[in-house]
Amino acid sequence: MGRRLTDIETLLFNLDQTPQFGTNIGAILLLDKASDPQHLRNAFASCVAKTPAFREFVHQPAAPLSPLVWMVDQHFDLDHHVRFLRLPKPATRAGLLATASAFVNDPFDRTRPLWQAALITGSAKVGAALAVKLHHSIADGQAAVALGSVLLESQASAEPAEAVDLARVLGDLASDETTVPASLADTIRSGATRLAGFLNEATERISQAADSEPTPEPGAAFNSITDGLSSISGPGSPLWKQRSRNRRYLAYSFPLDALKKRARALDASVN
């Protein structure tokens, strides 16, 4: 069977079913000119071959007791994940950012690996943009930076990524992967086994705690939970009141030399 989602991956995968807690990570790279489409496809194909999260989807068993599992997408289609969009005339920078924002806002197909990228082109004056979105269950900020290091080249003369035979790579991986439970009974049995293991571990920990600590007063555990909940009640941050799935991107330009000068004056870095 494929790898089980960790607790935090499961939380993040399920969290964005509530509109206020969308968990897409979006990034937009503004380019002076469009990248070569085939070079870009090769770079992402290399990521798919090297990074499990780029080729796996979340299998959701029929029974709620069973854990979510990462499985290799045997019908993986690079064209679904890497797209090429062109702005209608007259192309503008505002239109470029609006198109990128709409792309990042679109929800993922949760039956496929949870990432997409789009190269958006306009005109020579407007330039182009590479928009990338990742679900938070497969990447955090650090992973997104690592992806950028794979896609971006430090020198203009750098050799483009070589083509990858994705069909062969994915075929080899799928042949080594055991299938998920074939029937509802198998799924329930798997979930029940996991639940039993959890209860056994919980019982053991409670026994260990009872041997080392005095017995708490009846209802003490419940009171501590309710006290904790009451401490976080109230109006909360005003920043969250109007939060929704909608995201938009704006671009500001600053002279780099002025930023560096100001950073030195504050004994800081531009970052």
In short:
This protein is an alpha+beta fold.
What does this structure look like?
The chain has nine helices and seven strands. The longest helix is centred in the last third of the chain and has 29 residues, at 184-212. It has 271 residues and is α+β, with helices and mostly antiparallel strands. Helix content is 41%, strand content 14%. The chain has helices spanning 7-15, 37-50, 78-81, 93-105, 141-151, 166-175, 184-212, 220-231, 256-265, and strands at 3-4, 24-31, 56-59, 69-72, 82-86, 115-121, 128-135.
Task: Name a few traits of the molecule.
9 helices; 271 residues; alpha+beta; 3-stranded antiparallel sheet; 4-stranded mixed sheet; 7 strands; globular
SS elements, strand count: 7
Helix content: 40-55%
Question: Which regions contain 5 or more consecutive residues with pLDDT less than 50?
Answer: 218-226, 228-232
Task: Give me the strand/helix succession.
Answer: EHEHEEHEHEEHHHHH
**Strand order in the largest sheet:** 2-7-6-5
The protein's oligomeric status is single chain
Q: Mind summarizing the main beta sheet?
A: 4 strands, mixed
Shape: globular
What is the typical, i.e. mean, pLDDT?
78
Rg from C-alpha positions?
Answer: 24 Å
User: What structural category characterises the helix and strand content?
Assistant: alpha+beta
Distance between the termini: 43 Å
Strand content: 5-15%
Number of helical segments with 4 or more residues: 9
